[in-house]
Records
---
Amino acid sequence: MEKIISIDAMGGDNGIDVTIEGACLAMKRQKELSVIFFGNERLIIEKLKNIEYSKDKIEVIHCDKVVEMDTKPIDAIRRVGKESSMWGCINAISEGKADIAISAGNTGALMGLSTIILRTIDGIERAAISSLWPNKTSHSVVLDLGANVEVTSDQLVQFGILGYSYAKSVFSKNDPTIGLLNIGHEEMKGTEIIQDASLKMKELFSRDYIGYVEGDNLSLGKSDVVVTDGFTGNIALKTAEGTARLIGHFISDVFGGSTMGKLGYLIGKSAFRALKDKMDPRELNGGVFLGLNGLVVKSHGGTDILGFSKAIEFSTKLSQNDISSEIKKLIAKKKDYESKD
Amino acid sequence: MEKIISIDAMGGDNGIDVTIEGACLAMKRQKELSVIFFGNERLIIEKLKNIEYSKDKIEVIHCDKVVEMDTKPIDAIRRVGKESSMWGCINAISEGKADIAISAGNTGALMGLSTIILRTIDGIERAAISSLWPNKTSHSVVLDLGANVEVTSDQLVQFGILGYSYAKSVFSKNDPTIGLLNIGHEEMKGTEIIQDASLKMKELFSRDYIGYVEGDNLSLGKSDVVVTDGFTGNIALKTAEGTARLIGHFISDVFGGSTMGKLGYLIGKSAFRALKDKMDPRELNGGVFLGLNGLVVKSHGGTDILGFSKAIEFSTKLSQNDISSEIKKLIAKKKDYESKD
């Protein structure tokens, strides 16, 4: 099925050097993909001169301004405004010109603009950032990863609805399991907000809700979806990244430290490469903003051409229709039992 | 310098099978160490029959009751009470019979009893659980790891005092650096509680306070001390453990999956062993309860003989006097500037 992705060409630490080449790489691999680049037309066309691509699959829309990596969300909305490449890129999905928007730009600004332009789905107070977290056999959907520092119990339940709907679509599962991140599995653990959310999620997701999951359960894949607030989610995500980097450092340390280690490394090189691939953060580049009337994908700001192309390829697998119809169904179910309480 | 460690012989998933042998193993390695076992005298003496040890270094004090792994803290205090091995073990430091207490039992109960028996140091409202977090070159002190789910900004500053004093003693550093865990390094990030704590810590620790640190900074060792609330700290710790386990699984997966991988593994075996040692959680077994009038060390409940012996050996390196004199100095300094505000 053909997909049109709108791309904030100016976003990210490396701007068009990464976004344009990344998009062209993705289009080489996925034939049904076409893109709209938003950004400085002259620079984009200059860049495209050196790249092989099919002209009918690329549209360029000029935007005068750029949201910088350190622009505050409020300034991205009020000061930089509608002329930015980020705004244009998101607006394209609001206008139905593209299926999904993608940017490697400033996360806070992207979330701010996305919320202003697309608005949240009825019944969802706040959009959340979700990501696929690797485990032994597959992945889990984890959210929120940083958009909402403080949340109510009802918002946690809403994140549950978002994550569950997303998991159903992205994993093609009829009844994904869902858990709530906490510091123990006993009922009395955690804050009142979490305890209250747990009761509500039990009612809403019935058997698919498996209760509390702990930090180590994230990587053990205890449930298909893990719900948490944006503060905890962000700390957990970055802690996992830091741990993986530390172990990577230990590995090169011990295998570079002795002759036998070096030899073992040379002989087992393909295994080491497989390990590196498994741990390559570029393979899973792309946080999805859920809860809006339109899908926005956030690529890592510092990613490279391969990483950006992976984020685009990943985007093409998402279906806004599937996800939002499930979200609406669950919100109706939630309203239904709330009216009975 | 001679150290006497009081041991809750009945605590942990494996009780005396681990605690007695672990203690005897530690005593073999550390000649200045002697222990007092609290627990079922008959069982302990029976167990000791099969182990080599020097009689003058072991005392056994009989306790009738045991705090089980699932006993609630309030029940450990009110129902099980003073006759438990856990109570006896902590009480020994309150009575000056031992230098440090150690238990592999139920964390919540151990913290509850420790607080009741030892009381917090004046100026410290709540005790915190701290641990040494490995990084590239050394370790950081991270706290709180689960004792205090919700905290005030002032309690975060108090945790800072505890962690800083502990780091000074355990790393023998005059001016350790200290950071506050947050989801970004910019001033406006995080909750109001964190922002307020940051201002206070800047005043108290001046140049040693490096501001906010993020989740990945834990493993990168950006500061000697990292302060957070018990909810976030617990999630971060378990997330790191889960990530390390997942990578361990990936490693055996890729190296067991091909002939060249297996061969590389065989040749690089010593390097793999070094890696395994570096990642062995038993090497760092021991969370220290800080802020009380006496040091209590919590060993992992599921640890084995080696792990328990490591926790004991680690305990012998701690000095309650050094740590608490520094804590008192910092509390006086804090009171001083608070009176000026």
---
Amino acid sequence: MYITGIGRTKFGVLSKSLIELAYEAMYNAINDGPIDITDIDAIYVSNFLGGPLNGQLHLNSAIASLLPDMNIPIIRIETACASSSVALNQAIQSLSQFSNVMVVGVEKMTDSKYMNPTDAIAMAADNILDYQNGLIFPASYALIAQQYMLKYGIGHDVLEQVSYLNHKNSNLNPLAHFSYKDVSMEMIRQSPIVASPINLFDCSPISDGAAAAIISKDRCSDRDIEILSSHVSTDSISISQRKDLTSFNATKTAVKKAYAEAGINPDDLDIVEVHDCFTISELIALEDLGLCEPGRSCDMIENGDISIDGRIPVNTDGGLKANGHPIGATGLAQIFEVVTQLRGEAGKRQISDHEVGLAQNIGGIGGTAGITIMRG
Amino acid sequence: MYITGIGRTKFGVLSKSLIELAYEAMYNAINDGPIDITDIDAIYVSNFLGGPLNGQLHLNSAIASLLPDMNIPIIRIETACASSSVALNQAIQSLSQFSNVMVVGVEKMTDSKYMNPTDAIAMAADNILDYQNGLIFPASYALIAQQYMLKYGIGHDVLEQVSYLNHKNSNLNPLAHFSYKDVSMEMIRQSPIVASPINLFDCSPISDGAAAAIISKDRCSDRDIEILSSHVSTDSISISQRKDLTSFNATKTAVKKAYAEAGINPDDLDIVEVHDCFTISELIALEDLGLCEPGRSCDMIENGDISIDGRIPVNTDGGLKANGHPIGATGLAQIFEVVTQLRGEAGKRQISDHEVGLAQNIGGIGGTAGITIMRG
């Protein structure tokens, strides 16, 4: 199966509504490839916080309103921050009966009149065991960063480099939340503490945005990107139930299956998008994906391995940190970037070798993981 | 493919939490059939209001917490009140790659500390076009009832009979929200108006509860029920976008495909479960499913056709009206009833002929419809 069209909006603090954002991404995806909207057999909609932040659930029917009288199956998936990679996984699965399926992910996080985004995002954690004890997400990831730094003896400077690299990449991405913003190491170092050791520049932003993709059973054009494998795994929701905070079993389980099905190993990857909701999760992802040994991701960063001109470029769009994190759209924005790079259409941020790419998208504190491997 | 296990909780105002309810239904479904929990390849979780009412999203990971180290794909589906028939549809689709899949639907609607259920349920309608203009669900269905009564010249007495029949059936169902409650025509007639012409006994209750099913590729025991077809269709979310309020295109589109795939017609059905969130929607459902001509469902009720001992028994468990409507579980409770009847295990409410059954589950004001046809 193939990705035959991609589209997205700019990410950032946007004045469009949830549905307008979804429409824009869907429109762009349709116009990107040869598949017409009337050829779409089903749609998967990914969204995390439409209920709590926008007072809008039943988004599959809201999308149906954009397509009068089509009456096709439209299904909404919610698996926290992994919603859109899981929606993509389900869309791929649906090709057992359909020819062309659309996936659209959307989130409108700013300007909610219902509640603040931090409390809403906390709904991805265990309400009783985590949230009611103060474990909003920056606090949970601060505990993880503390554990990781203690276990492997690294300092906060490694996290600062992750942040710096992502911002450097987003400056080459006109659609990023932080595009063309000069961010210096000095600004990163001096940014205020959110939950020690995590400071402001360790956190991805609250973004609005949408992204979409068309998935087809058959190849349609020479710009199509083949999907080699897609796998989803889960783990317990509360960090109180984890034996180890420095690695996520859901990522490791999903990627093992994904490598096996694709018939590749980590050395074959030319581009990787990882879920850096906080800088610490980028380090953990590099290790969980098998790109280096546990505790050695700091070397990859130090050696320049993950830079755009490095051995294995990571988050060339700026990642969640700087491209932005409109939650329901994030996993599809990763797909957008991998497809753009594999096609050789990434402009100023184009990588040199671009045959095989991987996207890793997680929900909560690694409670859900979605892995997609693609070939150009 | 086959339904090889079913389980549910009692419906009603319950003191268990969202996760405890889900666990109980899952436990009962596993114990009902020959499939062990370790044989389950994936789980689909259906829930509508976990975010707004319980502060709990990412329910797929919360379910993973009940199954330590299984790390299987668990996916949450939300399509308003049709969530669980759509989750079932996706589970069936997943049998293209899996052998045994669980579907669990759950809702904890009472005792929310976050918001009132009526405002939360309104998130299934268009926030801008419907809710902000006062169209909470009883108001929308009141407009529909007005249109229907005007178009076909029927009085409120037909709706009263629908309510009476459902309560009569729920008295034979020990798991119903209203079990063993004597409800007289007098009580129904004299109940307070909610939104004219809809009175209290035209409305399904606010219920807590869960239901689950195991779906297997291969037949496992002689209690298995075959799934002949499952289809999902959508329509616009706002009633302001509909040309006709007295019929739902999503139901008609889905059931047409479902009959064709199953190779049956309405006359072949021995039992039907319809989505009577309000009594008027039971009348519309009977017509949209082709059980009678448009406007003639009143005859079916008058003639006793839909009674337990009638020509085509409908909502033998009491329907949403009297069995209850814990939204994310409702579609699976319908499946529970059809399977129980087709197996011949329905006790005091057992129908005589029980070969083929259908369940119709809708979301919002018919914005989503899920149809499942089964054979014993």
